[in-house]
């Protein structure tokens, strides 16, 4: 009997358990599941597929079968989970005994903060923002308003739209030539529970505004306008701050309207929220998302069904930004991965993958040089799991933005505490990530210089680093697409 056939009794067991699971609040634990065979991998994938019905919250998934899965479960559902794991003979360990207790210890207990001397200057900004702590969305907005007031020549407050609950999605433009310079977009907090991401984006703002007079920084700000939106899902973020209950603190989606329906077992289930990073029009609904409104990865009824994703789309495609944007980065947690496109399936890459990969490797090397933190570089499908509908992939496919990345911040994938990053790690995380962001900004500067040189009489250059490879693979390109090749590979084609 093959494992495909032997999975049938397990499917029957899962089906019988679905009607018994409870949604009554209870203490939550996290288990790490480690499959060692195709049968065990298939069993865990069945759990994952039915996670919303079983009240399981998968923190980490591994669809290639070579790594572990982390899943949070309430005390009432633990017996169901353990029965299924026992039936499939899957190895597991409990990594967090009480998630709410960890949340209170990491994020709510009063304690003196201890930082090294070199971090001291970055802990509290001149405008009063405390980078040693997580903060509320209104506090972020107030700080950005103060910066726009204090640095009117450098900073402009912007709003790209309103959320489902009517909050303004605020950010700031930072640059010395904001109307004409190249644009580097950075957003964070599209997943509500990933608190370290908005904090890191705010730290970027602090670096740019507090050091704008440094010669290197000033040169950068004369050529690049940074558009930074620290929290593009403020409804979800504020909801996660409203309680230490793990079901609330670890909420992932936005707060869209409630959808009610009966499941296969006759239970009336009412759930709300859309995973905003599955809601963009990039291979929508194809992989890594769900049609179940109760799922953590529910993609929504249609692409761009949510006001938050429409706001990002409209801003990126606006006249103000579209033809000027050279960089787009969206910050997430966790796993320590610097992700390039595309994420909907394995081994799917854009045509300029060489350029993207080289810059990403330089960025992660600069990041590692700060504290020794190691990052992996690759696509989301190759390094994590296939998932369609992401903002970064939509931007890369739809626009002419060159350097597009999704960054999964600290901690590393093997860490057991995942989304509940200790506040003592906030500044190191932000500082090392800024080192990587600087590398991308420098790549934008270099590309701008190359494009400017190409426009000068008598100059003949290759704008694209991939020109030589393109011509090795297709020598006829210079004559097949002469206009494109003249603009991007003039030297390689001898078109000067």
Describe the structure.
- With 496 residues, this protein is an alpha/beta fold.
- It contains 20 helices and 14 strands.
- The protein has helices spanning 3-18, 38-49, 51-54, 75-88, 99-107, 117-123, 137-150, 196-210, 215-223, 234-240, 246-249, 307-316, 353-371, 380-383, 391-398, 426-455, 467-473, 477-480, 482-488, 490-493, and strands at residues 28-34, 56-60, 69-74, 91-96, 155-162, 168-174, 182-188, 224-229, 259-262, 268-271, 325-335, 337-340, 376-379, 403-412.
- The strands form 3 sheets. The protein has an 8-stranded mixed sheet, with helices on both faces. Strands 2-3-1-4 form a 4-stranded antiparallel sheet, with helices on both faces.
- Helix 13 (353-371) links the parallel strand 12 (337-340) and strand 13.
- Helix 1 packs parallel to helix 2, helix 8 packs across helix 16 and helix 13 (353-371) packs antiparallel against helix 16.
